[in-house]
Design brief:
By secondary structure, this protein is α/β, with parallel strands linked by helices. It folds into 2 domains: 3-183, Spore Coat Polysaccharide Biosynthesis Protein SpsA, Chain A (Alpha-Beta Complex); 201-260. It contains 6 helices and 19 strands. It has helices at residues 35-42, 56-63, 78-85, 87-90, 159-169, 188-199; strands at 3-8, 29-30, 33-34, 47-52, 68-71, 94-99, 103-104, 121-127, 136-144, 173-177, 182-183, 204-205, 210-211, 215-220, 225-226, 229-235, 240-241, 246-253, 257-260. α3 (78-85) crosses α5 (159-169). The longest helix has 12 residues, at 188-199. It starts with a strand and ends with a strand.
């Protein structure tokens, strides 16, 4: 089966605001690597498209020439509508659809393709809650054969209703367990948890950051200045934690943009 990949990066990330007020969710850094770059790494080796909408110019600039780009002209079309808009590019291929906001503790999702006969819809899953599919939770990646793409159109719709549930009712839905950690990074709490998982119990400090304060479970972005303490926190590139300040269970953007958990 000829398979292409689509990284779904068009969403507004409303639950993650204010972090996404001026930055697309796909470009939020986790472990000092943007979610978009993590998603592209997981589908490396496939022909890849990225869809964009909210703050789409930033996504387009970040992708550059690494993938085919599909910019949705109005409000986001949703996961199914985004694939519908890409049908001329997809052609008769199957699609590995990857949510850009999915954080996985490793890049290997080859189990989703291993042994696939090309007739079923496959979902990467982890144990619930929420127990969306037979006690499992969707883990951000699905594999869709051409027959289940045929009726998709560039109209607002989601894959749950347009593809996954119909496949389930037809007895053609397969669940593929993912052995690591999955987080959807959709809320500040889960976004922080993903960063702490990426730090693996230690600290991650990007090149160019200056740190004179104490770090304990911290992810520090490039060119940040840390003169205070960061405890279980994330500081975005260029962020500042002043001397005498303690950033605990929080995300810092700029000099004083703080999102507590």
């Amino acid at each position: 089966m000829n398979v292409c990949a689509v990284v779904l990066a068009a969403g507004e990330g409303r639950r993650l605001r204010p972090l996404t007020a001026g930055t697309p969710k796909a470009l939020c850094p986790v472990g000092n690597v943007t979610l978009l770059d993590r998603a592209l790494a997981r589908v490396a080796g496939l022909d890849v498209a990225v869809n964009a909408c909210y703050l789409g110019d930033q996504v387009v600039a970040a992708v550059g020439g690494r993938a085919h780009l599909s910019v949705e002209p109005g409000p986001p079309l949703g996961t199914a509508g985004g694939l519908g808009l890409l049908k001329p590019w997809i052609g008769d291929r199957a699609v590995l659809a990857a949510n850009a906001d999915a954080y996985l503790s490793g890049d290997d999702i080859s189990a989703l393709l291993d042994g696939w006969d090309g007739t079923t819809v496959r979902l990467l899953v982890v144990p619930g809650p929420p127990a969306e599919f037979s006690g499992y939770r969707f883990a951000g990646h699905s594999l869709i054969p051409p027959p289940f793409l045929a009726d998709l159109s560039p109209e607002p719709a989601d894959l749950v209703r347009a593809v996954w549930r119909p496949a389930e009712r037809a007895g053609r839905l397969e669940l593929v367990p993912y052995p690591g950690t999955y987080l959807d990074t959709g809320t500040p709490r889960d976004y922080l948890a993903a960063n702490l998982n990426a730090a693996a119990g230690g600290n991650l400090v990007a090149p160019g950051a200056v740190v004179t304060g104490k770090l304990d479970g911290a992810v520090i972005g490039a060119c940040a200045r840390i003169d205070g303490d960061v405890i279980r926190g994330v500081v975005w590139p260029g962020g500042v934690v002043a001397a005498g300040e303690r950033l605990v269970d929080a995300i810092r953007v700029g000099a004083d943009g703080t999102v507590p958990i």
